[in-house]
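I hope you will forgive my troubling you with a question about protein structure. The record follows directly beneath this note:
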Amino acid sequence: MNTEELVEVVLPGKVEPEELQVRRGAVPGAGPGQVVIRMEATGVSFAEQQMRRGRYYDQPPFPFVPGYDLVGTVVATGAGVPPGLAGTLVAALVKVGGWASHVVVDAADVVAVPEGIGAAEAETVVVNGITAWQMLHREARVRAGQTILVHGANGGVGSVLVQLAQAAGVKVIGTASARHHDTLRERGVVPIDYRAGDVAARVREVAPGGVDAVFDHVGGPGIVDSWRLLAPGGTLVAYGTASTRDDQGSKQWPVVKLLLRVWLWNALPNRRRACFYNIWAGRALSKDRFRARLRADLTQVFAALRRGDVTPQIAARFPLTHVAEAMRMAESGTVAGKVVLTP
């Protein structure tokens, strides 16, 4: 007899972390083509920090269960799903719904986690690893010997991006607050304190001719500096508007403004290009192609993790029911790596 119950965290509206609600109920069943995953690790991403403020540009209406990705064991399979999938450790990118003890996912959306990688370790590279890999290798197409600038080099995406770039033979300049500089230096990164004034001038000292790619999750006025720092043939990959996290007003406008800027820059004859990276791009056009690409890229990231090219950075682990503390820590700006939630 199944005595398990569903435990999930609900975001009821624009609330403080302490006002997130824990709801309990019956464990859901798997429909045709679906699996039920018993969550072993999920994470606090920047997306949830924006969602809590109503600032994530395509979040569902309140109330909903947040949680961008998860890793866990398949405990039930629906009709049409290979029964051999039961009992395997898998990862899934879901955008919402991951902050729960049990999550129903389409079987086509799960990626097996290789032996030897633990759930929490794997969790650090699901959304962060796919994002980093696709930006480096699909958008910027970096090559050995190039130099790149990574903003927030100590963050969830930034730390994976740095390591994947170095594994590809790329020189990395990284912005971070001073307390993270020793760690970055140990990794072979040239650190720049973004709080100490003119970041662009410091980058120019290291790379007088400009950099081959910039990865910018901050957005806002600073994106212009990111563009100007590109060498001829360089690529700016914008992938967020973190600078507007605490703003009021339209949540779409910062993204629209960024997209307009990208369009304008690409229209100019300047031998440089810009793009706005969205992990969900192409899903509406072809689900099969989207899934195949995601599986291929996450498989590459897991292989890098197994080789030791990427070291999983777990900032802290909290039980799911202690989500308020986890959220506060993730939002503090003091941590390196990923804040992980466990059952």
About this structure: Residues 287-307 form the longest helix (21 residues). The first strand starts at residue 6 and ends at 10.
